[in-house]
Amino acid sequence: MGAAEHPRRLGIPKTRARDPLEVFRSSSPLELFLDLVFAIAVSLSSAQLFRAETSAHIGEGVVAYLMVFFAVWWAWMNFTWFASAFDSDDWLYRVLTLSQMAGAIVLAVGATPAMVSGDFGLIIGGYVVMRLALVAQWVRVACGQPEFRRTALRFAIGVSAVQVFWVLFAFVPDHWSKPLFCVLVIAELAVPAFAESAGQTPWHPGHIVDRFGSFTLIVLAESVLAATTAAANAIEEATHLTDFVLIGFSGFALAAGMWWIYFSTDAGEWLQNRRNGLPFGIGHYLVFAAAGAFSTGIKVLLDYEAGRAAVTAAEAMLLLAVPVAVFILGVWALILRRHLTSAQSACFVLGAALVALCPLLAFAGVTPPVAALVAAGVMAALVVVIEVWGVRGGSTPRSVSSRAVPA
């Protein structure tokens, strides 16, 4: 019996590469299950951001949130890209994926001590568990797919090496933690570029678009929940009935607008050029983080109106408006820009700027609920632009030929 047959003899199936031209490739039930588990980590990190912002520790809270969210997003994105290329759906693949989910749960539990007291022990432990499970997946690819052996080994070695430094990160003095964190982030981002230079993995452009869209929906659902909470509070806080109704309506309108612009066009054709994959994925860090922070902004605005938040009117509105503006700019840069004329692009950039400037209305005596309604009005105007100018389901992106093939 040859060496290549040993994995089968031991009962361990060989992994297989997926067809990057497969028709109607969509998220699997296992992928959707993993998304829901990662949504728990997003929810808990957003909850800690809310606590920091309502207690007037805005700067520290935002920095801690971005650090924790990186761990959530990067682990999710690496799994997504791997699954798009090598989802064999056998028992070992499922066990390793469930192991990543277990790590995500540990990471979610660690979000609270990490953001409250700067104790990243649990969150690093969960992150390392997720990453080492991914290393095992890459080792399987190296053993079972000779044509991708060099790439898989580079991924396995690169990811493993960075995890050693993440473990050491837990013992670094506080004044060195943020600079070292930035260095390790750069190292993490460098691994895919280093590995894929040895040979590109057969990920599926349409599947990647579907996966990122699914996670966007989950994160935006947090915002819809916050808007629903506004309606519930309106019944309990009868003295602020109008304000709570305005916040609830504005929050839902903003969430609906964010959904509308994100799903107005398809980035699949742009991703046919495989060199665009990494910028598309990395750029979504800001899109996802902004969507998560947006749900927090709604809750802060509710607490401000109820007199429970230690922030000013302008700060309360700022915490809602800035995430929405970042989301608009991120979607424009990653998806919409290639489907728009210069004039249409200018409208989206201007719209994002107007939303970001809405907090200044507080200095003119405009209440935060009314300012939130103005922001929702700007979002509605952007949706009108999409529909009137035929952006949704429109023409092929100007920068990519409809005959483009994977590079």
UniProtKB/TrEMBL annotation:
Keywords: Membrane, Transmembrane, Transmembrane helix
Entry superkingdom: Bacteria
Transmembrane segments: 62-79, 151-172, 241-262, 282-302, 314-335, 347-364, 370-391
Entry-linked InterPro entries: Low_temperature_requirement_A
Pfam families assigned: LtrA
UniProt keyword Membrane, yes or no: yes
PANTHER family in alphabetical order: BLL5714 PROTEIN
Protein's name according to its UniProt entry: Low temperature requirement protein LtrA
Species this protein is from: Leucobacter komagatae
